[in-house]
Amino acid sequence: MTNSFYPPVRTLMGPGPSDVSSRVLGALSRPTIGHLDPLFVGLMDDVKRLLQATFQTQSALTIPISAPGSAGMEAAFVNLISPGDTVIVCQNGVFGGRMKENVERIGATAIMVQDRWGDPVDPHKVEEALKANPTTSVLAFVHSETSTGVRSDAKTLCALAKSAGVLSIVDAVTTLAGIDLQVDTWGADAVYSGTQKCLSCVPGIAPITFSSAAIERIQQRKTKVQSWFLDMQLVMGYWAGNAKRAYHHTAPVNAMYALHESLIMLEEEGLAASFERHQHHHEQLVAGLADLGLSMAVDREWRLPQLNAVCIPEGVNDADVRARLLQEFDLEIGAGLGELAGKQWRIGLMGYGSNAVNVNRCLTALATVLGR
Ligand SMILES: *Cc1c(COP(=O)(O)O)cnc(C)c1O
Questions:
Q1: Pocket of ligand 1 contains residue 204 by CB under 6 Å
Q2: What is the pTM of this model?
Q3: Among 236, 300, 348, 353, which is least packed, fewest CB within 10 Å?
Q4: Are 309 and 352 spatial neighbours (Cβ–Cβ below 8 Å)?
Q5: What is the pLDDT of residue 241?
């Protein structure tokens, strides 16, 4: 007979998933009900409203997609872009590369604006690219590059898109609830996230929001969206205001209970207080790392408080350290991705996991393993 699986209690300080509170895990284990049950429909309305507050938007097309953050990315791209379109994609880490892949699979052309991994997207280069490519229909960029721990200036980039008459797609997977993101004020057109980063919910759901200009673009499409599951025209039928909900797919009912609970916790704390908490514990961690002789990989101005890129000192074996942290301290931190593998650690202080206990646990564990 196969044994049941009982995972250990780990402290998750990597790039996600982050620590999930017992309150959210408790919500997950409540009785499953039908996904068209009137009570479930009521819960989904709450989720929509709470997500609007979190994205700081009034948009009615603000919904949780029943799939991980990558599906949120794909939903934004396949709905707003048609074959033959020209799209400017900013890349300063791993996730910009995935955006390019999405554009090309649609049969559109990706004009790449490259920046060094570890730097923010350069708005001047974006401005030049928009001027040089007047047929561009969409500008896409990552607000919080989880692969490098870098924030880009989303407000300025969205404004550049707007003044050029193009729509913006913003990856806010690691952003949401961790740092400020003003979807309506900044004029972002399609913004997606994930539940397992600063929302501290279980993985597998992608909150997304579309502006009225984006909805208009979707309604005016001449070709069908290539993905049936992610076609917003169909999904809108399920979510639409007061209209009777039609069956589209079976929502992950219990995971939605968990998202609902994590959004309630965020509402109780307040969005601004959540941003402050992330910043406060980030500063504590940076100070403690400096005491251990460890330095940060990103310029102070562009550091993400929720994802701390740390330079691995000369002569220290990356894999050995992470393995010992996991075995001896049940502590997970992230490895460097792509060209930063072996050069950096990524220490997440996301959502529920952004607290003083985690900061101290991580510093103590690193001090022990590094012998400092
Ligand atoms: C985690 C992440 C994703 C992908 O989310 P998944 O839930 O793993 O599919 C996309 N973009 C960024 C910036 C991320 O950090």
A1: no
A2: 0.97
A3: 300
A4: no
A5: 59
